[in-house]
Amino acid sequence: MTGKPVSVEIYTESHRILGRLNPGSSGLYSFLNIPMTSTLEIEGAHLSRLHAPGRLVARYPTLWLAKGEIVCILLSSRAEMGPTATVRRGYTTPLVQWIHVLLGGYELRGAIESSGRFNFSGLMFEGHQIFIPFFFGQMQAILFPNVTAESAAMLFNRERVDAIAMLPKEEIPSEFRTKTQPV
Is the pTM for the entire model greater than 0.70? Predict the structure, then answer.
């Protein structure tokens, strides 16, 4: 595969994995949502357990991971995600929707983009993508409250979602409180 490796921070229900993925020229979002593959090959993997996040369990030159076990992936910038655009009718500006996501032992707070009013069924059940782009995210493990992270860009596994709620206006960061401001 051609392309530049992307540094990732991956969370499963029990572990945190730091390493590099090589998504090729398609970008990480497209690479993760390829329906014909169910595994990832992570290079230079550092593995730690959630109950002891500061303690490194092991380092591996290569670690293989089932995509279905991933709860979320944190990136250092939106550019590392690659193109995430979906086909929309007409000329529409993506709207930012601030949400609270409960999934696989974690809570996420941040923003998604939509072409109109928030549609839970559309987000969860339409299309073939497994991983949903998430921006300005804050993540916290429920059973291990000291495990927290913030990231400009994340991808979360929609198959792990338990519930989603719209954030109240007062919980949205003040610099993002306009309704139509794109991310």
Answer: yes
